[in-house]
Amino acid sequence: WTGNRVTCRDWFQLTLKEGLTVFRDQEFSGDMGSNAVKRIEDVASLRARQFAEDAGPMSHPIRPESYISMDNFYTATVYSKGAEIIRMYNTLLTEKGFRKGMDLYFERHDGTGVTCDEFRAAMADANDVDLDQFGLWYSTPGTPTVTYSSKFDSENGVFKLTLSQSSNSDKPLHIPVSIGLIDKTTGEEVVSTTVLELKEETHTFEFSGLENDVVPSMLRQFSAPVKMVSESGEVDEEALAFLAARDTDGFNRWEAGQRLFTSLCFQKLDGDVSDVTVKNVNEAFERTLADKDMDYSIKAYALTLPSESTLAEEMDVVDPVALRAARGAIRLATARKFQNELLDIYNELTTAMSSDKEFKVDAESVGRRRLRNTVLGYLTCIKETPEEQKVAADLATSHYDAATGMTDKMAALNALASMDGEGADARDAALQRFYEEADGDALVLNKWFSVQALANLPDVLDRVKALTKHPDFTLSNPNRCRSLLSTFTMNAAPFHAKDGEGYKFIAETIAELDKLNPQISSRMGTSLIQWRKYGEKRAKLMKGELSKLAEMKLSDDLFEVVQRGLK
Q1: Which residue of 268, 276, 292, 327 lies most exposed, with the fewest beta carbons within 10 A?
Q2: What CA–CA distance (Å, rounded) separates 566 from 31?
Q3: CA 526, CA 312: separation in Å to the nearest integer?
Q4: Across residues 259-276, what is the average pLDDT?
Q5: CA–CA separation, 94 vs 25, rounded Å?
Q6: How far apart are CA 211 and CA 216, in angstroms?
Q7: Contact, 382 vs 335, CB < 8 A?
């Protein structure tokens, strides 16, 4: 409907229909399940993939200015960030105003090919507002940063919030910042969600009539695709702990917990862990475990540490091996501290689910599976001794045995795929069993390849190389390539191993693949162009592989990526 009845006039306008359709899909999925859960999933994906794209050599606006090969612009920026731009219309104009704009858009353009500017004009005209400044989003690459500071005038009961923006635009962007205010003394929300329109480089917003100081809940529902940072540059853990316990916005409550986890992971990485941070994280974790009223899916996400890729986005220079070790240590320490409580929840959910007579896909059933699988991940990361390795492998195997759907089966297999020592036999047996049960089904076999490419094992590169010789692997099948090779590049620690063997393997494979499928080779090539983020030694190795590729006869698709990567 939004992709074909009104389509794009030219390829530069691709986000016109793709961003809009992704947004509509997100809203539909949220309405069918949980809007807060869906928003958490979409933002986590945006930060992990699109923010990284924005920070690299292939950074481009949602409406690209130029290209050598259009195939290189079916990107997270055009699709996912494009959807965020559409969402900002919805936030600024309200759902009613957005619908008025959509109605006018179809009235004017049904059956034609148009531009992003004509979509913006329909939104503006239908609501009698000026959106010219908002149009800068379409031509601005990179992720903007919004900086905030605040102070409370206790004598007059006025809270002042100052927002400042910086971006790659020569002029200020029009940024909707949704906030709420929560009373520090009572814990009650005293200002419900309000959309602040930041249109200058710096603007101070005032809230009067307040009895006590407040904690601001910033960027609710992730109202704009920006990075939000405090002016001081310091993490206010007291405020984060307060919001993790009391925020009325489901997304921001999750976000506060994630920020606490992030702070602890970075402290571990720096070798300077604060007892106060550990206390804040443990209290938030314990409170989440004990909350009987929390949505199962929200609870699962609240208990989950930020991904390695999300953490890496906040670092100027990334050591993926050290980052994995730090994050893994926090996960293990948390699992050990709450092992009994986690096991109780796992057993409760297992008993409840075993009484289900049929497989269900309603929000509650999906949430129960998600939470049980999250808890399984914690319990099976406790595997430092031979005895623990056997216990973890047995638990994951029984989880696999009892699985009634692919979700539970893959959760068990993910845990087993990284088993070593006393768990190695269970790992090998599960992988063989899954392969046999796939019975040649292409989609299921793709999962079998991917789970091994993502394994946290010291010899994972050798295993991936061996899998390229497997009878069911072929470079001529795009999805099979993605499932093994592209997935391996996402397994950051082994891909970015200090010896550079991961880079060498992927570069050699890309050169071979480019002769068969330039679209896949160029997409895979983007894994080598982020060298600026990985320190001098890794950068030299990555650039070395790019230089070798540059000397070969390449497709236009891969040539564009390699050349931009070497700039």
Answers
A1: 292
A2: 44
A3: 16
A4: 96
A5: 18
A6: 15
A7: yes
